[in-house]
Design goal:
The structure is a homotetramer of 337-residue chains. With 337 residues, chain A is α/β, with parallel strands linked by helices. Chain A folds into two domains: 2-125, Rossmann fold (3-Layer(aba) Sandwich), CATH 3.40.50; 149-311, Dihydrodipicolinate Reductase, domain 2 (2-Layer Sandwich), CATH 3.30.360. Helices cover 33% and strands 22% of the residues of chain A. Chain A has twelve helices and 15 strands. Chain A has helices at residues 12-22, 42-45, 62-66, 81-90, 106-113, 131-140, 149-163, 193-196, 210-222, 255-265, 283-286, 313-328, and strands spanning 2-7, 27-33, 40-41, 56-58, 71-74, 94-97, 126-128, 143-145, 173-178, 201-202, 229-234, 241-248, 272-274, 292-299, 302-309. In chain A, strands 3-4-2-1-5-6-8-7 form an eight-stranded mixed β-sheet, with helices on both faces. In chain A, helix 1 (12-22) packs across helix 12 (313-328), helix 6 runs parallel beside helix 12 (313-328) and helix 7 (149-163) runs parallel beside helix 9 (210-222). The longest helix of chain A is centred in the last third of the chain and has 16 residues, at 313-328. The radius of gyration of chain A is 20 Å and the shape is globular. The relative contact order of chain A is 0.15. Chains in contact: A-B, A-C, A-D, B-C, B-D, C-D. Chain A binds chain D through residues 173, 175, 177, 179, 195, 197-203, 205-206, 227, 229, 231, 233, 235-240, 242, 244, 246, 280, 282-284, 287, 295, 297, 299-300, 302, 304, 306, and chain D through 173, 175, 177, 195, 197-203, 205-206, 227, 229, 231, 233, 235-240, 242, 244, 246, 280, 282-284, 287, 295, 297, 299-300, 302, 304, 306.
């Protein structure tokens, strides 16, 4: 049994991590913290956890928390994580950071997140926690930069084609649709029920902070710089991201062939499922699970990939626990079945 | 053509008043104001109004606005209205206040809204703007206290039985369900999409500030003090209130008889529709309209009344315009067809 | 490991039973059947189960299925179950029937379900599977009549007061609100998205087939015949039932006292949680879980109980598995954590 | 006052036509028909229309209806319209057909709709009713082929660039998202609330029957054959289509320049609004109205156009009435304000 703490326990991602860990055989939740008015049992803040998680949710005190955990999940807004990560690393505790703070080089970070990075020293040791691509590095990681939700859905949907060198790397268009939990848990008029319900919008078109993250990883895989077109949309549902990805083929390929390439690429990866030819995944197939379901369709010289994840599971908390499982030698699927 | 202003133009009720007035033959919108960062065309704040309402939405300045309007609608939070109403009345402009500030005696107001009333002098001249009961007073009113959304649905659902002296006045239970616009347009975690969607809750059980308003009007009709049991619920939809009202009959009455009583009581009232025996109304029948649809069912000695309104129309903006129509001699249904 | 089968595997309740059993330590799903066009892997019908439940979903053949199961769940429409139950009982297999077919005496059944009962012989041996009240009988049951969703929420919300003889048994009013899965999985215009979304309605007012079921059990507890007033409503959400229950007190009792009575009544019952004084449960607290959360409020001589369950979990599949756990000597919470 | 009839009055499009005509100054609804069990007042089928549309909704009898109308709207499934259109044309009545039956050449129609066309003679006289492009032809039309919802949003979003010859016509990708009314009003498990709510899916990827319609019109404008990539998605909301369209620029152009081109192209068109540079439209801006709002963004050599319409208004009934207004010499915006 390892002792685990969650910082930012009252955010959607933090709450989801806790929900998963409750049924995890290998861990004990020993510490919870969040920016709250008064310290009280977590189950008093979220009655859903009554009888399951009744330990006190404390105000943030990383130094203290570090004494009572082996590993910590940080479910914090970007800019905040980089102030807390060093504390835990110094105390030789492993950290899984769900924020964006350690996913990018300092300069790119500053450009897209509008702030000088305060912990440049640890950026190089951070491992990008996408196990389907980097499980070896994840095993030994002290600090995991847990991928963003949009990047997870897009990267998993494009990677096999880049490895196969089957597409024009300058042609990638990702049209992504996300549920509202992706925006986080905070008072915000734009996030209120009546503004989102019966509405649909594109936002931050090609200017979303997840774009450089996608570009970086896809460029690494392609072995050359690439720049995608990325349009996120907000959909009136709680959870789920569906990314419809358009790629120009440079090799003759039909749907059957594309399906084969993807199935081979993800062979042995427990959380990626490729739809058979003629079928496409949808949000309901994966919501509440840690799966990424991908469907494919070739039309002319265009490959269309439809990639679906639950933004709070494979797009955040689920992937974070998947990383922990690999780091700690648990079964990769433990707690995520 | 009368000149009309709207204070609190960016709230749900204010926006709805404007939406209605755009198609109203007798009025011209000359002034809009709201608490905003910068003054700009209303259609820049709400692009839906582009080409329809392009006049500037100003920061609040009642004295100035009063010079350019014949009548004003106040779509403000309670406590704020009572500071602005006197300005317009002093300038001899008619006021339709959609807040709760002039619906109750000062002492009751203080008990339920937690504030000393700042304009006690004008409370007595305020007319409770429920036209189906008080149209004569509305005609001559200088100041309308526009009814709350819950009270409108409950009062219209109970009034005929009280007039008929057919129920035990101590037996009234109103179980009301409201859409989310009823809570107003503001940044609030409790109102965020993911907190309301796929959720349902009872709140302020028998402690909602609309209860004294309902008690006051029903007591007036009954000719004796009564106290109802009132449970509001929040439902994941944008608009609509459905009140299921339970009353103990003191007269032998079947559903057919109850329907007759209600149809007679509301004969000639254009916005109340009574369902035929065996039928019940639902939100979709009235959403977007100014109708109050009421269905009835007698079982044993219990009368169940189901009363449906659109909380932003008959429950707020629609009723406000209905009151204006009566005050200004327009057809009662003008703009509300 | 016991061998379990599910008949009606493609209905919402059947699918939910399977979802729960996948993570249950004591059972192996050996047989699935449903009325389908062609026999194929269950995961081909519901891709969500890919890699988890890939066994074939067969066309109904009870005799055959009986050979390969120890216990069977029937997720069927009423009228169908009573034709299949005898087959499994004859084969000495234990049956948990989620339909209404064995919850009522034959004559009451005929009145409310409009059909002569075809298996009168087995009605007397059926145990009403509400473990919080009848766990001793459940232990030895060969046939479980799994309670309806509305009855579960209402009965658990009223039972303690009846046992306490603290209320006027003729005064019970249950105003229930349900999500759309309660209506079952079938092509029906009234159940289509655009008819339910942004809508809300009362239906079958005091004529719902769950009323006699509630009356029967509450009368048993009260020790005298009673007849409640019951109004179901359809709410635009997938899951959850919230019942707001009004009872007239015959004993002086405040909220604090009521909370105590309920907490004592349900002491040791793992799936009923009573909210502390001043708090009320909501759907989000219990959706996806097998909990029934109950909140209480006394006002005057009226007790208001708010009872929340997930209609597919505690209201159907979860309770069915809870019954199986008790019948088979598993931990009562196994698979339902 | 012209006499108007609606065939298929109980479908979503038919109902919407009626809702609009109720407030139209120039028409009188004289005939309504639909495939129904018994003939009764339209307001008995849709209580929302009580007191507004109480005339009888009859069973279909085109010959009879033709005697009592000057113009008829057909809100029918494809394949049915072509059997009824000839009846009205023969009776010299003008027809606005909301189905797909007269939008394509007979051979293309057969390929995509799987049926031999039964009224080939009238296909050539049908005018494609997209007034922003074909108002002159609409004026004199006897038969209007009212455009599909997806085509309206895509064609209006691409047309200016084709006229300007500013894009590679082989590069057009339309990623469209639609609300559920787009699928029509019928009992269908796939359209049930619980299948669509909290779900999101792509469907008929590049195989949707609206694709040839889009290709045909865009090819006409471009003056050369083109073939787009078209991916429709189903979103959990009642109304609205948002199409995100990707085009490769062949001319140097920035967002400012693109906005100018679109504003000029649609100058004087009352129902198309182009967002200023830096702004994008969303569904809430146009839902319930006949507007098509278009926002633009250039990134590298890619132009992204976001085109929003209400699928039942500009995408069906609203556009149909807009066509009628032009055909009959009414103000183009009458009834659509």
């Amino acid at each position: 049994m390892i002792k685990v703490g969650v910082v930012g326990a009252t955010g959607y991602a933090g709450e989801e991590v806790i929900k998963i860990l409750v049924n995890h055989k290998g861990v004990k939740i020993t510490e919870l913290s969040a920016v709250i008015d008064k310290e009280e049992p977590f189950s008093s803040i979220f009655p859903a956890f009554k009888g399951k998680v009744d330990i006190i949710c404390k105000k943030p005190n990383p130094e203290e928390m570090a004494k009572n955990v082996d590993l910590v999940f940080l479910g914090l807004p970007h800019r905040i994580s980089m102030e807390i990560v060093p504390v835990f690393l110094k105390a030789k505790k492993r950290v899984i950071d769900l924020s964006a703070d350690y996913r990018l080089p300092a300069d790119t970070y500053k450009t897209w997140y509008g702030a000088e990075h305060k912990d440049k020293a640890n950026i190089p040791i951070a491992v990008y926690g996408l196990p389907e691509l980097y499980s070896d590095k994840v095993k030994k990681a002290e600090l995991i930069a847990n991928p963003g939700c949009y990047p997870t859905s897009v990267i998993l949907g494009v990677a096999p084609m880049l490895k196969e060198k089957a597409i024009d790397v300058s042609s990638i268009i990702a049209d992504s649709k996300s549920g509202a939990t992706g925006a986080g848990r905070k008072p915000d008029l734009a996030l209120s029920f009546c503004e989102i319900n019966e509405n649909l919008k594109a936002y931050k078109v090609n200017e979303h902070q997840h774009k450089p993250e996608i570009n970086k990883i896809l460029s690494d895989i392609a072995g050359k710089e690439l720049d995608i077109v990325f349009t996120p949309h907000l959909v009136p549902m709680n959870r789920g991201i569906l990314s419809t990805i358009y790629m120009k083929l440079v090799k003759g390929l039909d749907t059957k062939g594309a399906v084969e390439i993807y199935k081979n690429f993800y062979k042995g990866k427990p959380f990626v499922r490729i739809s058979d030819e003629g079928k496409l995944p949808m949000i309901r197939d994966i919501v509440g699970s840690n799966y990424c379901d991908i469907g494919l369709k070739v039309t002319g010289n265009t490959l269309i990939a439809v990639s679906c994840i639950d933004n709070l599971k494979k797009g955040a908390a689920g992937q974070a626990v998947q990383n922990m499982n690999i780091m700690c030698g648990f079964d990769e699927t433990e707690g995520l079945g």
